[in-house]
Amino acid sequence: MSTVLVVDDDAHIRASLRRTLAFEGYQVREAADGIGALARAAEDPPDVVILDLMLPGMDGVEVCRRLRQAGDVPILMLTARDATAQRVRGLDAGADDYLVKPFAKDELLARLRALLRRRTPGQAPRTYRVGDLTMDERSRQVRRGERPVELTPREYDLLHYLIARPGEVVPHATLRAAVWGYQDGRVLDVYVGYLRAKLEAAGEPRLLHTVRGFGYVLRP
């Protein structure tokens, strides 16, 4: 049974999420502010965090940053409809996904399932290589030559899907469904940009290529 930490200063939202998540079989922990969230996460590490962007005192971006420094727990950030700049800050701080308020319960649950899938045990760990890029599943380490590449959990998932299919052009819709579990194309574009920036940070040649109008491919 997966544990979800719900962080929101609105008691009504916390209560609604608690009922929805408990009905689906999740164990639910709650915090009303950033300090409380960090304390709860340290005391009882959750499997996934639902984190409101607008919190009193320490805001959601700072909470996200500190959670990410402490580990790789998946983070779903809740944002206001007009908070585009804040959403970008949240993603930059390490959030794996975001959901705009008000949201449908089914969409929330679908996104949680997508976040938790990366923690599901699978086949024996492998090491992948494309050009000078390597990924070790056992340690979750990614390197470009000798240079370590630090990725967020969602960036890792996206790269993992592509590096496991070297030279294969993967359609946009396939990537969105496999990595996020839904069809929002905007977040895929954002994460491809993040991956490219990190993979090419030292001036290395491009490995993640766009096939215009179709998808993406990882190849030298």
Describe the protein.
This protein is of the alpha/beta class and 220 residues long. It folds into two domains: 3-117, Response regulator (Rossmann fold, 3-Layer(aba) Sandwich); 127-218, Arc Repressor Mutant, subunit A (Orthogonal Bundle), CATH 1.10.10. The protein has eight helices and twelve strands. Strands 2-1-3-4-5 form a five-stranded parallel sheet, sandwiched between helices. Strands 6-7-8-9 form a four-stranded antiparallel sheet, covered by helices on one side. Strand 11 and strand 12 (215-218) form a beta hairpin. The N and C termini lie far apart (41 Å). 31% of the residues are buried. The model has no long low-confidence stretch (mean pLDDT 87).
Q: How do the helices and strands line up, and which of them pair or pack?
A:
Elements: E1 3-7, H1 11-23, E2 27-31, H2 34-43, E3 48-52, H3 60-70, E4 75-79, H4 84-93, E5 97-100, H5 105-117, E6 127-130, E7 133-136, E8 141-144, E9 147-148, H6 153-163, E10 170-171, H7 172-179, H8 185-199, E11 208-211, E12 215-218
Parallel strand pairs: 1-2, 1-3, 3-4, 4-5
Antiparallel strand pairs: 6-7, 7-8, 8-9, 10-12, 11-12
Helix pairs in contact: 2-3, 3-4, 6-8
